[in-house]
């Protein structure tokens, strides 16, 4: 192979301040108590960020409540102007935001540049378009916003998850208090600056940073009307318990253990790409990742040979290098979990394989890994690993594929690979998963609703359906 | 060929895994975003120059034009002796003796299109005579066209037999089989035609004549690279690939090299196994090469016009 020379994206396109306070009522406050956020690729501290306590959350919710009166009274076409403006500013600042996202999260720049940022802008554009058409969205002739939305988002797609939460909320006339994940707070704080730049009225968007406790204060706050959470099923359960009986509206987008089903009549080369994209995209930190490969036994050997050959070309390393395919694991804690579950996979008798790849000395890294000889009884076939680890299972018939695919407590996504259209439709019909991709995987679009069955959560985000969570 | 063998041929071609259009185009587009800079770019440019089949296939070709082009093939950059020669000159059969006089003994190959290029719509004996003439004139590489009409009509036997016959007429000359992918319509057909040509004895498979609106594209070349990779795994014989037509810039050439690098790897990163059929590409490669060595761009008048 000819080696590509290093092609690093410039770090200097983003200026990160030494510390950031909370963004409440249109102003950045002075940070009192703080925590550090690091670059997972080299463990360098990027900034100190305010740790929001109960009083801070109180003030943020109060600011959102005050802003709600005027924001919700604006004509939809006026709210749309702000959202369009935000979308355009995001496009203008997309290079800066992409570098920031890669620094704080560890994802390769080619993904933050080509996937995250374009989708973030697209979400704001899309919901901006809905703001003056809510009466035609199918939720009654005069749907009303709910009030203050408390939103808690994960670290895997920090800015994109923010967009999924904030864009429909604002379009529908709600105001929000958003808590970004503890390990990836920076892009949300830069988004706060985007809101100021767009002239968004104070209090419409408030950002409170912190860890699990801050999130708990927010979702349990009595003056929050709507809770939206994306994250682990375990935390989702706690939130569902704390919200039960309060009258708050709740949507949860939780874990997954998606089956990516490859039939013997699949377009093999593209299926291999789909498998790689399904599990190694964003280091496998994707709730809808295709983490269980179900391959028809008659082609399993051939397919796995192709997959291994392809995996050997994956470039793992510096997230800011434009040629990097797989970046850093987001945190030490997540790396520990991936490592632990992989060791369990080996000890339960599955065969582990990774391509040769040298990993950097500093930072959090995990080589792309597949486990073959996995059965439904293995923990790595049942539990969400949330890392670049694929479990390979085989099946004999379409019925068996469907049974195995559905045999999980989760139900967020699934993939089907076959050149036979009738089979795709028949199988998709029987899969209990919110999203079923056919001959592709991990494709996202603001017009398409996204959400899960069973322990993968409830409610939909994206599309017309995504408005329902923010309207009464 | 017996009837059984031919029906086997049909089931073999139709039994190849399908190609998903959206998927293959997305993969090619993703690889096209690779960033090849500095030292990697310098190496890649020299490799690309060594892979060029410098081509002129015009009705207006004259001995003078072909002599000039052949001279350029030997020394693409007269100002820089470290610049390597191209792989080959590619001309019409009538121009082969002219090019041969300039190129003989130089190591630069002499390719000739043959078999009623570009349409392939001529009787077999005409195609074979065309081929023999070119070889007799000194061509050591023959670029033939397949009968797209016969292929699209499902008459794989005819296409197969023609390739076998032309291969035989080539003698020791290398045979490149032009699939004219722009007329095949689907990626499935590109994969089938690739296998058909390889089974019939092609040494190279080539995308296009350059005479129809759609010539070489990245996804088509990707499908062909997958085909030669899989064919070698199955049949044990390595086949070369030549995209031709529409590749004009260094940036384009880099994308193709990345495609080879990440699909079939090292074994194909050589002029023996990969060629660019191009005319204007060479000067852009030379301009970029000069830019890398001197640090600034020279105007087009500093590169020879041939």
TrEMBL record, chain A:
The active site is at 253. Keywords: Oxidoreductase. Residues 31-471 form the Aldehyde dehydrogenase domain. Gene3D superfamilies: Aldehyde Dehydrogenase, Chain A, domain 1, Aldehyde Dehydrogenase, Chain A, domain 2. The keyword Lipid biosynthesis does not apply. PROSITE patterns: ALDEHYDE_DEHYDR_GLU. Pfam families: Aldedh. GO terms for molecular function: oxidoreductase activity, acting on the aldehyde or oxo group of donors, NAD or NADP as acceptor. The keyword Oxidoreductase applies. SUPFAM superfamilies: ALDH-like. Belongs to the aldehyde dehydrogenase family. This is Aldehyde dehydrogenase. It comes from Paractinoplanes tereljensis.
């Amino acid at each position: 192979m000819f080696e590509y020379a290093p092609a690093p994206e410039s770090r200097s396109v983003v200026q990160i301040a030494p510390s950031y306070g909370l963004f409440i009522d249109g102003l950045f406050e002075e940070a009192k108590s703080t925590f550090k956020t690091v670059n997972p690729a080299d463990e360098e501290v990027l900034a100190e960020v305010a740790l929001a306590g109960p009083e801070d959350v109180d003030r943020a919710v109060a600011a959102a409540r005050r802003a709600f009166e005027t924001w919700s009274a604006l004509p939809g076409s006026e709210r749309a102007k702000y959202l369009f403006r935000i979308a355009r500013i995001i496009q203008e600042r997309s290079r800066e935001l992409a570098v920031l996202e890669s620094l704080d999260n560890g994802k390769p720049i080619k993904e933050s540049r080509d996937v995250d940022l374009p989708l973030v802008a697209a979400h704001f554009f899309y919901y901006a378009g809905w703001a003056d058409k809510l009466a035609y969205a199918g939720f009654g002739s005069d749907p009303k916003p709910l009030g203050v939305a408390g939103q808690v988002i994960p670290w895997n797609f920090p800015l994109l998850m923010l967009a999924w939460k904030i864009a429909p909320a604002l379009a529908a006339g709600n105001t929000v208090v958003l808590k970004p994940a503890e390990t990836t707070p920076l892009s949300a704080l830069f988004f706060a600056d985007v809101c100021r730049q767009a002239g968004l009225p104070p209090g419409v968007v408030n950002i409170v940073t912190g860890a699990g406790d801050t999130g708990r204060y927010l979702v349990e706050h009595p003056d929050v009307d709507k809770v939206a959470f994306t994250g682990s099923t375990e935390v989702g359960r706690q939130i569902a318990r704390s919200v039960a009986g309060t009258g708050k509206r709740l949507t949860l987008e939780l874990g997954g253990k998606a089956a990516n089903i490859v039939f013997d009549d699949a377009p093999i080369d593209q299926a291999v790409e789909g498998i790689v994209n399904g599990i190694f995209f964003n280091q496998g930190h994707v709730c809808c990742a295709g983490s269980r490969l179900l391959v028809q036994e008659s082609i399993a050997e051939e397919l796995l040979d192709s997959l291994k050959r392809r995996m050997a070309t994956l470039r793992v390393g510096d997230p800011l290098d434009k040629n990097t395919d797989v970046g850093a694991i987001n945190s030490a804690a997540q790396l520990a979990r991936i490592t632990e579950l992989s060791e369990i996979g080996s000890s339960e008798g599955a065969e582990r394989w990774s391509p040769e790849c040298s990993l950097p000395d500093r930072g959090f890294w995990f080589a792309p890994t597949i486990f073959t000889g996995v059965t439904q009884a293995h923990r790595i076939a049942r539990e969400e690993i949330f890392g670049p680890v694929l479990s390979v299972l085989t099946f004999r018939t379409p019925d068996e594929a469907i049974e195995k695919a559905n045999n999980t407590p989760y139900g967020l996504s699934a993939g089907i690979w076959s050149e036979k259209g009738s089979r795709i439709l028949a199988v998709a019909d029987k899969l209990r998963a919110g999203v079923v991709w056919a001959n592709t995987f991990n494709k996202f679009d603001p017009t398409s609703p996204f959400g899960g069955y069973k322990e993968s959560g409830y409610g939909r985000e994206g599309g017309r359906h995504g408005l329902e969570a923010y309207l009464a | 060929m017996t009837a059984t063998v031919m029906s086997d041929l049909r089931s073999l071609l139709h039994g190849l895994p399908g190609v998903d259009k959206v998927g293959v185009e997305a993969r090619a587009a993703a690889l096209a975003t690779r960033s090849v800079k500095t030292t990697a770019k310098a190496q890649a440019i020299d490799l690309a120059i060594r892979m060029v089949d410098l081509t002129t296939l015009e009705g207006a070709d004259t001995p003078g034009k072909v002599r000039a082009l052949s001279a350029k093939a030997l020394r693409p950059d007269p100002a820089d002796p470290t610049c390597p020669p191209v792989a080959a000159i590619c001309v019409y059969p009538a121009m082969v003796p002219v090019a041969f006089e300039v190129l003989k003994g130089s190591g630069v190959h002499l390719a000739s299109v043959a078999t009623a290029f570009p349409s392939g719509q001529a009787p077999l004996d005409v195609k074979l005579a065309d081929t023999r003439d070119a070889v007799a004139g000194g061509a050591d590489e023959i670029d033939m066209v397949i009968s797209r009409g016969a292929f699209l009509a499902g008459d794989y036997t005819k296409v197969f037999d023609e390739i076998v016959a032309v291969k035989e007429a080539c003698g020791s000359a290398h045979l490149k089989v032009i699939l004219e992918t722009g007329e095949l319509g689907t990626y499935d057909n590109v994969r089938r035609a690739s296998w058909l040509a390889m089974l019939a004895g092609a040494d190279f498979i080539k995308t296009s004549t350059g005479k129809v609106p759609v010539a070489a594209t990245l996804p088509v070349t990707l499908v062909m690279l997958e085909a030669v990779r899989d064919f070698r795994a199955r049949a044990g014989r390595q086949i070369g690939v030549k995209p031709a037509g529409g590749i004009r810039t260094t940036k384009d050439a880099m994308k193709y090299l990345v495609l080879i690098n990440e699909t079939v790897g090292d074994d194909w990163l050589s002029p023996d196994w990969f060629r660019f059929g191009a005319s204007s590409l060479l000067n852009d490669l030379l301009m970029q090469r000069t830019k890398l060595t001197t640090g600034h761009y020279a105007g087009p008048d500093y590169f020879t016009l041939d």
